[in-house]
Structure formats: C-alpha cells, structure tokens
Amino acid sequence: QVQLVESGGGLVQPGGSLRLSCTSATDLSFYTMKWYRQLPGEQRELVAGSGSGGSTDYGYSVKGRVTISRDPTKKTVYLQMNNLKPEDSATYYCKAVLGGFSYWGQGTQVTVSS
After folding, report:
1. Rounded CA gap, 114 and 111, in Å?
2. Which pLDDT score is estimated for 40?
3. Which residues face 7 on adjacent strands?
4. What's the start-to-end Cα distance of the chain, in Å?
5. Helix/strand/coil for 73
6. What is the model's pLDDT at position 36?
7. Do the Cβ atoms of 103 and 5 come closer than 8 Å?
8. Which of 95, 109, 110, 113 is a good FRET partner for 48, with 20 to 30 A between their CA atoms?
9. What is the C-alpha separation between 6 and 44, in angstroms, rounded?
10. Where does the chain show beta strands of DSSP type E?
11. Residue 72: per-residue pLDDT
12. What is the mean pLDDT of each run of 10 residues along the chain (114 residues)?
C-alpha cells in the first residue's frame, strides 16, 4: 500500500504561484506520478505526469504554466504552478502508478481568487 500526502494548496491571487507537494514513505522512483484536479461534480482532469524514466507530459489547459518534478531524496513529487487563473481553482490530487496498481492521495485545495 502506497500512501500519498498532498500539501501546498491554498488561496492565491490571479497571476500568483503555488508549489504543491506529494510526499510518501515509499520510494516513488519506479512509479509513474501524475497530478490531477477535480471540481465538484466533474471528472478528474490530468494536469501533469512524470514517468519513472524522466518523461513528462502536461494537460493542454496548463501547458507552459506548470512543471512537474521529483526529489527522490525526499520521496516527493512537486507541481509548480505559475500565472494561476481562477479556472485553475480545484482540488488537486496526486496519483502513483506501477504495473496494474494505482494509489491516490487525499487532495489539496487550490483557490485562485482576488
């Protein structure tokens, strides 16, 4: 069982930045790590992904404004978000995938508002 804990969400003004963290007691080096976001009543949307080999991919709506990265020494995956917009407001979740197994964190709320 892999437990993931997200943190770093909060209230930020439009144009601001946040860095979300996803931390585990498990070595995440071999996992594909992804960040999703979700609004109430809607499906989860992929924000960013990071393969174990170093590849990355980003959702169309956030491309150029977010960066996913890893710190293996801290067993943490980050999501740096810049130039935030009100439409980025959502609950952000991280997900770890390895083989046929996937694990989700509990989410962290991001609110972009003036």
Report:
1. 10
2. 87
3. 21
4. 40
5. helix
6. 98
7. no
8. 113
9. 16
10. 5-7, 10-12, 18-23, 32-38, 45-50, 56-58, 66-71, 76-81, 90-98, 101-104, 108-112
11. 86
12. 96 98 95 96 96 94 95 93 97 96 97 97
